Amino acid sequence: MNLYINNHSFHYELENLTRLFYPNEKINVIKDSESFEKPYIITNITDRLSVEVSVGDYTRRESAKLSSDTENERMLCELLYKILCELTSISQPWGMITGVRPAKLYRRLKEDEGEQNADYYFTNKLFVSDEKLKLLKLTEKTEKKIIDLSDEKSFSLYISIPFCPSRCRYCSFVQSSVERSKHLIEPYVDLLCDEIKKTAEIASSLGLTLETVYMGGGTPTTLTAEQMNLVLSTVLSSFDTTALREFTVEAGRPDTITREKLISIKENKVGRISINPQTLNDDVLKAIGRGHTAAQTLKAYELAREIGFDSINMDLIAGLPDETVDSFISTLNRICDLSPECITVHTLSMKRSSTLTQDGTAINRDDALRTSAMLKYAGEKLVSEDYLPYYLYRQTRMVGNLENTGWSKKGFESYYNIYVMDETHTILGCGAGAVTKLKKPNDTFLKRIFNFKYPYEYIGRYNEQLERKKEIYTFYEKVYK
Q: Is residue 51 located within the same domain as residue 158?
């Protein structure tokens, strides 16, 4: 699809909006052109706003009056959205929203203009469906209570363990399996512990208050029990954890979970873990390269309960290849029977560098309808089981343009997930691929400091990375001058 951007700079939103309707096609963005090649979308600003779409035998042009820059951008998107809805016979559940954090936008509108006006804007200006607006409002209500607990000195700590036993076919993150990068793990852990200590020194000198810790990846439980103990105990001995509200380890893959590792995690005051089946359909697990069985998931869950974990999250993915609506329902019902404190329902996102995408898997209308039915059932079932949505986010290239939602029993919401998704406060990141996000209090401004992405870079350029972290001091000096 050729997207022509003439006499304006609103290409980002228009490109993302086009991708909602053409998820498998390359979108060619062409600026200020006078010649047009089909299939095309022409967006133009002269004395009016105009959008013309021509695909096959279909051609339609719409226009509107000029307004402010912000409204001009929205109106161009609206004109395009309505034409593409007609052309494709698709009505997007989230309307024109292409952003990651719809709850954050809704909260801002509600605080500035009131709930009724926020509802009107989402329904009549962004064309969000009643079903998704209801989900969003429930989620935002829960989020707000936790967001209000944070203050200007609060921060969270993210620890990255960028290793997995194998690469799942839907994942774009892991570049090599543990078998190929095993020799890097020991030096990586040693440097990670050093970075944790130095990050704690920075936080202490600035008088920051640690609220949550999240160890993610990758798969943190690819570490041995001894390595896990070393990293976690370093956190406890380095940081002031007096005000710590939550300590999470993403155990992730059931085939990496052992009694010794769980005991090590528990003994280091971790209160919350994730055990992520994605599905309990063994055929689907095999098709996505997951490397474990449903039986291993159930065994890992039982072991975690036996050792004493009373806050467990389990991740599922709706829309996986070969997963039917019935098999998804079966998985969710079995997970609900286990009664974990949190269940996160993700929608499959077709990342460009994932094996699925590179192998030519495409998103089609049937996939969207199938996945939508899965999420509809999940919402009804989880509410009936006394789970409430507590955080929600969206990604590009999601099947059916749907969403990821975290559901929890009352009092078991993940603070970290809410803080990071809302961008509530500073996140200090340690490890390969971690991003430190410095949040200016009472402002939307964020400064990002990126760690090197791959373990070999992290190890080879570690001192250079530490130099970058000195920017934290500079940031807070300006904030509190």
A: no
